[in-house]
Amino acid sequence: MRNNKKILFALCGFLAGAVGALVAELVPDFGENVPGVVGHVAVWSAIFAAAIAVGLTAAGEIYSRRPFSAVSYRASLIAGAVAGAMAGAVAQAVYFVRSGDGFFQDVLFRSFCWALMGAVVGWRLSSSIPNLGTKRGLIAGAIGGFVGGLGFLAVCLFLPDLLARAVGVGFLGLALGLAVVAIEEMTREARLEVIWGPKESTSVSLGAKPVLIGGGDDHVYISGVPEHALSIELTSGKVVCTEKSSGKRSDLKNGSRIKVGRVELVVRTASS
């Protein structure tokens, strides 16, 4: 399963969202007045949004075979919590204002608030997914958040309260994960296929940001290889590989293969 990026991100997003929603049920009421209810929803949203952000970060780490890094998870946790608190507080505050018709308040505006949350989560993921880019991360997150928000509201119409919130937030995480992967795959010009073994491969998008290969804090982690041993980037329409030790630069083409330790790297351009 860890070779299928769509399934991995969708599953991690769903499970993280559902678990986060169940944990958020432990948040006590802050009172029946407007500030109390808005604060309660803000904390509730912060918890499940942080869980989704961490879950999708975990999906990226699992897919890339990178070792555990507390720094990445901490940054995702903070970004998700802030995004969720903002989205939840704004949505609940507008609900209390009750300006406009109920459809706009309960469906469109709340979904736009989840889109805001998703955009922040997408922005955070863009820093850990090579060449996704901030703009595409924001767009993917916003789309996933909006679609997931609609799904959340739809689920709440048919299931009991607790189950509805768990499944609905899980769907929100699933939509975010799928949107990020779909936007990345749809917009890339070239990719690096990483063959780990028989019937086991993953891919990394190539672009202006060099993809680092090595046994340290690298995009493609290969145990036993020096940190940043190689870097591969797409510049001016050409795929270029740079060796750190010698500084040698080599032009690569579609189908070019590089052996690094036990791992084989294959360049795939848009024409492949």
Please estimate the helix content: 55-70%
Cα separation of the termini: 24 Å
Q: Strand arrangement, largest sheet?
A: 4-3-5-6-7
Proportion of beta-strand residues: 15-25%
Global shape: elongated
Low-confidence stretches: none
Structural class, from secondary structure content? alpha+beta
| Overall number of domains | 2
Rg, alpha carbons: 21 Å
The main β sheet shows up as: 5 strands, mixed
Query: What is the averaged pLDDT score?
Result: 86
Question: How many DSSP E strands?
Answer: 9
Order of helices and strands: HHHHHHEEEEEEEEE
Task: Please work out how many helical segments DSSP would assign.
Answer: 6
Describe the fold and architecture.
The protein is of the alpha+beta class and 272 residues long. It folds into 2 domains: 5-187, no CATH class; 190-269, Tumour Suppressor Smad4, CATH 2.60.200.20. Helix content is 56%, strand content 18%. It has 6 helices and 9 strands. Strands 4-3-5-6-7 form a 5-stranded mixed beta sheet, with no helix packed on it. It has a 4-stranded antiparallel beta sheet with strand order 2-1-9-8, with no helix packed on it. A hairpin with a 2-residue loop joins strand 1 (190-197) and strand 2. The longest helix has 31 residues, at 34-64. It is elongated and about 65 Å long.
